[in-house]
Structure formats: structure tokens, C-alpha cells
UniProtKB/TrEMBL annotation:
PANTHER family: IMPACT FAMILY MEMBER YIGZ (PTHR16301:SF20), IMPACT-RELATED (PTHR16301). Residues 143-198 form the UPF0029 domain. It comes from Malonomonas rubra DSM 5091. Residues 21-127 form the Impact N-terminal domain. It holds the Pfam family DUF1949. One of its GO terms (biological process) is regulation of translational initiation. Belongs to the IMPACT family. This is Uncharacterized protein, YigZ family. InterPro entries: EFG_III/V, Impact, Impact_N, Impact_N_sf, Impact_YigZ-like, Ribosomal_Su5_D2-typ_SF, UPF0029_Impact_C, UPF0029_Impact_CS. GO terms for cellular component: cytoplasm.
Length: 208
């Protein structure tokens, strides 16, 4: 796992637990910015306007990140909700994630320790059920080379997870490639050696 490549939520996910008759509904979504996380929080507050609390935490960046984070107890005792929720996210081997735990009070007070356990369990349960995908920063490059090198180049491309997006056959062969960002320099070195330097690289913007 690199800083450019790590697990993130595959999409929106929701789970629910009950603790001492209180309902804890956890909603999760992938986010790539603090702004996106706060929009999600606002959306959940609109969805559950009658809830006693909509506590939340988010982590933008690789798993374990601490530079782009946010949390809120939303009226629960200080440190009883947002902090344990964020702790679960930071230790969950997942990045780019926001979690909102919506609580409907069931009439039995849990105490601060009980609330910490409940909010922790709510997020842990959601993460256990959560479908994940790998976030990859894609890189695009067009390479041009003599026809004689085509077969040998095509053989090594899978070693660098490079996919051929487009082909152009003219005086030279041009291949437009898409590959993970962390493989870009390694592929450049390998193809330069393979062709004894008789290859050109035209770098393009990062591909989504």
C-alpha cells in the first residue's frame, strides 16, 4: 500500500445496531475533501431531522491519516462520540471516508463510558460490513517507438499494470497507456532499457 493507493469505501453504506433500546444508525460514504464530508453530514441531518444526535467523523487521505480529519459529538458529552468514531476510522485500514452515527435515544442512559462503547461498536460494525475498493491514482502517457519493439513492449506492460488505451500505427507505433502513478517511473526505466533509448514519452494529465 502506498500513499497513492489504498482501500476506500466502494460507495454509500448503512448499518444499524441497538444498545439499551437506543438505535445507532451508521451511514458511510467515500469522500475526497473536507467539503464533501461536511456536505454528507448536512445531508444526513436533513434525512434524520428528528434524531437526538447526528455525530460524525471523517478522514481524508490514506489510512491512519491525521492531517485532514474532522469530528463532532453533536450534543453528546464531549469525547463520547466523535473521538471514538474517528479512532475506529484511523485504525480501520481505510481512507477517504466519512461516517455519521444517528442516534435515537431509547430511554435508558448509557453514561459516557457506555456511549463511547456504543459509538465505537456502531462504526466498527459498519466497517466490518463495508464493501471496499482500491483507490488508484492513474497516470497517462503516450509512447512512440519502432515497429521492431512492439512485441517485447507488449509483453512487459502487464508487469507494470499498464493498460493500452489507444494504438496509432504511422511511421512509428504510438501507444497511449494508463497505469498506476507509482509505476510510471519504473515503466519508463524499463522501456528505455528495453529499446536502448529508442523510445519517446509524452506525458499527459493524470487520468481518473
Amino acid at each position: 500500500m502506498t500513499q497513492n493507493r489504498y482501500p476506500i469505501p466502494a460507495g454509500f453504506h448503512r448499518s444499524e445496531i441497538e444498545v439499551q433500546r437506543s438505535r445507532f444508525i451508521t451511514s458511510i460514504e467515500p469522500v475526497d475533501s473536507a467539503e464533501a464530508a461536511l456536505k454528507f453530514v448536512a445531508r444526513l441531518k436533513q434525512e434524520f431531522p428528528d434524531a437526538n444526535h447526528n455525530c460524525w467523523a471523517y478522514l481524508v487521505g490514506p489510512p491512519g491519516s491525521s492531517d485532514r480529519i474532522g469530528l463532532s459529538d453533536d450534543g453528546e458529552p464531549h469525547g463520547a462520540a466523535g473521538k471514538p468514531m474517528l479512532t475506529v476510522l484511523q485504525h480501520g485500514n481505510i481512507g477517504d471516508i466519512v461516517a455519521v452515527v444517528t442516534r435515537y435515544f431509547g430511554g435508558i442512559k448509557l453514561g459516557k463510558g457506555g456511549m463511547v462503547k456504543a459509538y465505537t461498536q456502531a462504526v466498527q460494525t459498519a466497517l466490518e460490513q463495508l464493501e471496499k475498493v482500491e483507490k488508484i491514482d492513474w497516470y497517462s502517457v503516450t509512447i512512440a517507438f519502432d515497429y521492431a519493439h512492439l512485441n517485447s513492449i507488449e509483453r512487459v506492460l502487464p508487469d507494470f499494470e499498464a493498460e493500452i488505451v489507444a494504438r496509432n500505427f504511422a511511421d512509428k507505433i504510438e501507444l497511449e497507456l494508463k497505469l498506476p502513478l507509482e509505476q510510471a517511473e519504473l515503466l519508463r526505466d524499463a522501456l528505455t532499457n528495453l529499446t536502448a533509448g529508442k523510445i519517446s514519452f509524452q506525458t499527459e494529465d493524470l487520468a481518473d
